[in-house]
Amino acid sequence: MTETAHHRGMWRWLTTTDHKKIGILYGITAMGFFVVGGIEALFIRLQLATPNGEILSADAYNQLFTMHATTMVFLVVMPAAAALTNYFLPILIGARDVAFPRLNAFSYWVFVAGGLFLTVSFFVGGAPDGGWFGYAPLSTQVTEVVRMDYWALGLQVLGLASVLSSVNFITTVFTMRAPGMSLMRMPVFAWMATVVSFLLLFSLPIITIGLLQVFLDRNLGTGFYSAASGGDPVLWQHLFWLFGHPEVYVLILPAMGIVSEVLPTFSRKPLFGRSFVIFSGIAIGFMGFGVWAHHMFTAGLGPVAEAAFSLTTMFIAVPTGVKIFNWLGTIWGGSIRLKTPMLFSLGFIFLFVIGGLSGVTHSIVPSDAQQHDTYYVVAHFHYVLFGGAVFGIFSGLYYWWPKVTGKLLNERIGRLHFWLMFIGMNLTFAPMHILGLNGMPRRTYRYAEGLGLDLWNLVATIGSFTIAASLLVFFWNWYRTAKHGQPAGDDPWDGRTLEWSISSPPPEHNFDVIPVVHSEDDFWHRKYTENEAGHAVTVTAVPSAPAAEGPIHLPSPSYYPALASSGIFVLLLGLVYLPWGLIAVGAGAVVTMWGLFGWSMEPLTREDHG
Amino acid sequence: MSVALHEEHAHDPAHIRKVAMWVFLGSECLLFGTLISTFLLYRTRTGSGPTAADVFDIPFTSVSSFILLMSSLTMVLAHHSSVRKDYRQMRLWLVATALLGVTFLAGQVFEFTEFVHEGLTVTTSPFGSSFFVLTSFHGAHVAVGVLMLLVTALMSFTGKWRPDAGMDVELVGLYWHFVDIVWIVIFTVVYLLQV
Ligand code: HEM
Ligand SMILES: [Cu+2]
After folding, report:
1. For residue A205, what are the contacts with CB-CB under 8 A and spacing of at least 6?
2. What is the rounded radius of gyration, in angstroms, for the C-alpha atoms of chain B?
């Protein structure tokens, strides 16, 4: 590749407004941050491998556990889900792009600005160290160091990016579906992406205001969370968890959507009780706003509130349980093919059930009073987040990789990846149940010898390096597949949904002709009908492709989204270092306005003369 | 039916943008909801500083609220003229709306300076913090609205302005009415109920 061609390649990525390219960008960025967050975790585990660990200072430990969680939640799982949503949501509903392609690019670049901004903090006087939940007054008190300013501002813009893409996705789903693609015919992954968008839309503003208040307390001297001037730090806990609990469903629902696509494909059966899966997803979305105070059972809310939230927390496990039975019903009696995506989905079910059960044990207040802030909670949320969300996402990666790249990931290496990750995950997090019940607190950088915690901590550390090894195996698979992978063909898994009806990788405009949808799992029904015995038989007459439509309008590339978000990055840096930073704030604001203005004056589309 | 309806709208950018605006305003509701909740929690936490009854001047704020309400009327008229493709009229009403918005903002600035003189600042007490942050957050929304109104009026001069590109009057109107409605809530909850 010549130098200029290379530059042109970079420029294409920087200015792209194609939802597929943006999806790939999200995916690669998330993978990069996964490595960062993973290294942070390995440091934590090294420190805790033995009693009285010497590797990290308390200060470094605080930064690492804060940034590990912040990175994994906001810079890995959310963007990884955004990657798959961006790439596949339009295709799954038979559209050529999202409703607002440039806004979509802007969301991505704002996310990058926020992620870099948070990570830069490591190199300028220390990263945020007040926990991913930033409890006040810890987050508001120490104003001489700017670490929690980085945190408050970083999350603020990441939130902005997510709200914008939620508006985009919701609008796409409600206005861009192909003819015949009624809401109930939408694939479950598309449904879950929609529910997630609504959750973000309504939960992020709550934390936006909370973060604004934290920022003002720190920089303007307001008294929102200062008990000395009459403010109430518990308000922060309410605002954070009003966002935080819906957020955990933001993290898990995409994985549930993926599993609901993968299981039917590899069992060669439709999803069992499809509408139940969809409605329980919606129910989870609603109920997710009614359980937040279960994170505050030790904050002294009083018996009435505690009883109420204990009940709602037990109830929310019901729609979750419904889904699990639906998945089991899907596999039941199917002709199962244990390909790697299927392995990860089955792993998801197994691990998520364990995490869900420990969640239900938290819902019992007296019991939670013992578990709260111990490693038992750490075990719980890693089973749901790693065993759940991350396994689900890997299932999706293996499943859709051939569609995105045109090449199949190697099965044998994939199986090795799965088993290493599965074993490593259980080695790391299962012992934490025991550690927690034995009283080991979260977020402390050392534990003394002779408390009976040594063995299980060592096991957990060994487990964490097993996970790291499994990730290296994945990267090897990635590399090998790029070099010598088998061509996948359009439909390697005998799929059910529209993405498998187009080429791998898909053309820029996705569909030569916008499909007309006649049923759920439309593509499957184009390939098979049922005989009298209820068995699938191949349709012989392949319907000929209808004549091509008129010219296809594609969104034109634009550098304004990236430009505007670079302004936001400068503006943020300025806000940290007030009052001198005002200069940077001004400069950043000018660049942002320039980007937004240029953007609004640009023509919208170009025609595809392909 | 749904198919037909859907196809009809499928490539109508104005419709798509309107849906997006509604969705976005849904999110905005939660922003204001959170600010108002914070205020309600802190409304009596005045410390040694002035209370709501000490500083609020209801007649004055009623007048500025009325002005903002009237701007919704002019906004409707602007939209009406744009539907009739009477762009001269439309510009006139857009600018009138913007001016009413600016008047409201001026009132807010005046009110804030008065409060500061009477000893209520954003750092005086949680009451002061939550009051000023809520009302200036709303003020910022009005300011953004004014900007959108003026840009729309200006863009209608250029050849670039087409009903299917950039901001259209209906969209700006949706936003503007929303900001007005939020003010009615704020005026009732924050002012009227506190004195
Ligand atoms: C069956 C459903 C679930 C129930 C009943 C449940 C219940 C709970 C409860 C009561 C706590 C608070 C424990 C404490 O701090 O004392 C908690 C913590 C947590 N849960 Fe769950 N949970 C469920 C599912 C999930 C899912 C699906 C996720 C994410 C994918 C998740 C992520 C978390 C996280 C991150 C925390 C800890 C937050 C922190 O303190 O930093 N949970 N869960
Ligand atoms: Cu929760």
Report:
1. A163, B27, B28, B29, B30, B31, B33, B34
2. 19
What sign does the dihedral A158-A161-A164-A167 (CA atoms) show? negative
Which chain A residues have a beta carbon less than 8 Å from that of B13? Answer: 604
pLDDT tens figures, A301-324: 999 999 999 999 999 999 999 999
Give ligand 1 pocket residues (Cβ under 6 A): A 133, 248, 251-252, 294-295, 313, 316-317, 320, 356, 359-360, 362-363, 368, 371-372, 377, 380-381, 384-385, 388-389
Domain annotation for chain A: domains and CATH numbers = 15-608 (1.20.210.10)
DSSP state, A491? -
Please tell me whether residue A360 adopts helix, strand or coil conformation.
helix
Distance (Å, whole) CA A317 – CA A250: 16
Ligand 1 centroid to Cα of residue A380, in Å, is 7
| pLDDT over 90 at A325, yes or no | yes
Model ipTM?
A: 0.92
Would you say domain B2-192 falls under CATH 1.20.120.80?
yes
User: pTM, whole model, 2 decimals?
Assistant: 0.94
CA distance A276 to A256: 13
pLDDT band of residue A85 (cuts 50, 70, 90) is very high
Structure token pair of residue B86: 């009477």
Q: Measuring CA to CA, which residue among A379, A404, A569 is closest to residue A457?
A: A379
Residue A230: how many other CB atoms lie within 10 Å: 18
Q: Tell me which H or E stretch contains A354.
A: helix A340-362
Sole residue written with tokens 């004195």: B195
Comparing CB atoms, the residue among A163, A171, A180 nearest residue B19 is A171
pLDDT tens digits for range B97-119:
999 999 999 999 999 999 999 99
